[in-house]
Write a structure and sequence with these properties.
By secondary structure, the protein is α/β, with parallel strands linked by helices. It has one domain: 3-Layer(aba) Sandwich (Rossmann fold), CATH 3.40.50. It is built from 6 helices and 5 strands, in the order βααβααβαββα. The model has no long low-confidence stretch (mean pLDDT 96). The chain binds 1,3,4-trihydroxy-5-OXO-cyclohexanecarboxylic acid. 1,3,4-trihydroxy-5-OXO-cyclohexanecarboxylic acid (DQA) binds next to loops.
Length: 144
């Protein structure tokens, strides 16, 4: 089972940026946590601040045939239709994750261009949100 984890804009700064919101752990800490959770899944990590690179990575689903994605597009969540269209163009199933509770923040963060096409959304649970999405994917559609 191959799973693609995409972290978008500014998420390379985790552990350094607004630690009161996003915590003191880095992106490599997140990767180590997820990799430690289940050795049987093939996890691919991708972070980019470039819209083009993110879109190309999503398009690679045509050839790579990922089982599912776990996506946190950062601020692009609230603004980016091109990334949404890329997901739709290759029919990429995914969970949307946000570290912070976007609904308890500025109103512009309450809108997501991805939630309605996601299999599920997890917000405000810190890094645990990624772990839960991964667990859910491993359990399968109807797993409990
Ligand atoms: C975020 C929430 C976004 O509003 C913000 O722009 C981010 C991080 C989160 O994980 O909480 O960069 O996606």
């Amino acid at each position: 089972m191959k799973i693609l984890v995409i972290n978008g804009v500014n998420l390379n700064m985790l552990g350094k940026r607004e630690t009161e919101l996003y915590g003191s752990e880095s992106l490599s800490d997140l990767q180590a946590k997820l990799e430690g959770l289940n050795q049987d899944v093939d996890l691919e990590f991708f972070q980019s601040n470039s819209e083009e690179e993110i879109i190309n990575k999503i398009h690679s689903h045509k050839d790579e045939k990922y089982h599912c994605g776990i996506f946190n597009f950062g601020a692009h969540t609230h603004t980016n239709i091109s990334i949404r269209d890329a997901i739709l163009s290759v029919n990429f199933p995914f969970y949307e994750v946000h570290i912070s509770n976007v609904f308890a923040r500025e109103e512009f963060r309450h809108t997501s261009f991805f939630s309605d096409i996601a299999k599920g959304c997890i917000v405000g649970c810190g890094f645990d949100g990624y772990e839960f999405a991964l667990t859910k994917i491993i359990r399968g559609e109807n797993g409990s």
